[in-house]
Amino acid sequence: MQDYFVAHWLDITTTILGLAYILLEYKASLWLWLVGFVMQVMDIVLYYQKGLYADCGMEFYYIAMTVYGVWVWKFGKKRNQAPKEALPVTHFKKSLVLPWAVATLAIWAILWYWLTLVGSTVPVADAFTTALSFVGVWALARKYLEQWLIWIVVDVVTCVLYFYKDIPFKASLYGLYVIIAVLGYLKWKRSMKAVSA
């Protein structure tokens, strides 16, 4: 049993950090970005060890988006936002749907091709979750309600992928993420209605 925990310590640690992260995201707490940064640094090592190269590379993007997210949540403004008011939850702009959809498909295709070249055993799923995550983390940084819908899709696929790649704790976390994402969507939607009422 001890050998199992020693072999999976990185998986366990990042799972605990991931749980804290998603709960802070659910609460729309600025602290999610700090917890996310620590988790992302450790995930680089974990994913590289497991041959999830797109996920590994994605963590560098997450780190950059963490800096961006802190800045936007702390200093960013949206139209009709009162001075000194916290960044409000809003809807994903309709004008951004088509460009982001095209970008996501292009990123998926490029990553899929690259992963087949580097010998990934799961190029389609790894590329898909990574491409969709580009949009998800950007939408989170902008505090768009629909970011939760993106994460539901990512989390379902990632849960299955991580069980397949023998990362059981993190896989279980992503299963829990699906539930929290549904609850987060409902909570953020209620907060939008409360602000507009």
Automatic annotation (TrEMBL):
Family matches, as InterPro entries: NMN_transpt_PnuC (IPR006419)
Protein's membrane topology: Multi-pass membrane protein
Domain of life: Bacteria
UniProt KW Membrane keyword: yes
Main location: membrane
Subcellular compartments: Cell membrane
NCBIfam families reported for this sequence: NMN_trans_PnuC
UniProt name for this protein: Nicotinamide riboside transporter PnuC
Source species of the chain: Hallella faecis
